[in-house]
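_Backbone structure tokens_
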Amino acid sequence: MLFWKKKKKIGLALGGGAVFGAAHIGVLKAVEELKIPVSFIAGTSIGAMVSAFYAFGVGLPELEKIAKDLRWLDISGLTLSEFGLLSNKKLGELLGEKIGDVELSQSKIPLAMVATDITTGERVVLKDGKLAPAVMASTCIPGIFKPVEIGDRLLVDGGIVENVPLSPLHELGADYVIAVDLNANHKYKKPENIIEVLLNSFHFALQTTARLQTEDADLLIQPDLSEFNRIDLNQVEELIEAGYAEAMRVLKDIDKRLREK
């Protein structure tokens, strides 16, 4: 893969998409198989969770096992807060169990994640401080999860401001950005519960801005996840395969075209 060897600072942006985040594991599998060197990684929402595990050296077999074993009750619990139905504190505990009580700056691959200040609407890029609260903040879907307090900020899901986190990678120093958008090809179905109502509403609001933001990517991977359910955790294996297949197709195609020039 001569093309990738010429690119010294490749950044990988993993976007949000709830359970669809399992497709990111398939993308990472393709990246590793093709020996594409990732210098920086950034994540938003579920992309923040996957990027955290990967940046701290959790291998793909272990990451796949974590994804397959995961249940909503493992990452959330009821809260008495007036700000959300659930708390994602258990997600922070899972990160502590698998990675430890670590700082973002300790990652093996330089890592950033995006959250939203729910008071001001500002984009907040998290590159320092404790890992677990940062991931909890970036994955904190408003209305479902209680906001996460970091410093003097009240933070929620970064998808509101940047669902596919390209800008943090440029800030870190990437000169070529591969972006993964999990929502581009999704077909929405009639919701069956309040969680699906809230998730659909949230992701409708993200679609237009995400399209504009991903135009700045050097390479865009958009797996077709139209037939998958956004909250069904029993489809992880199929989502991983969908992410892998599309990543291999796109990455091999760009390399072939550049070789032919």
Q: What stands out?
A: The first strand starts at residue 10 and ends at 14. The chain has eleven helices and eleven strands.
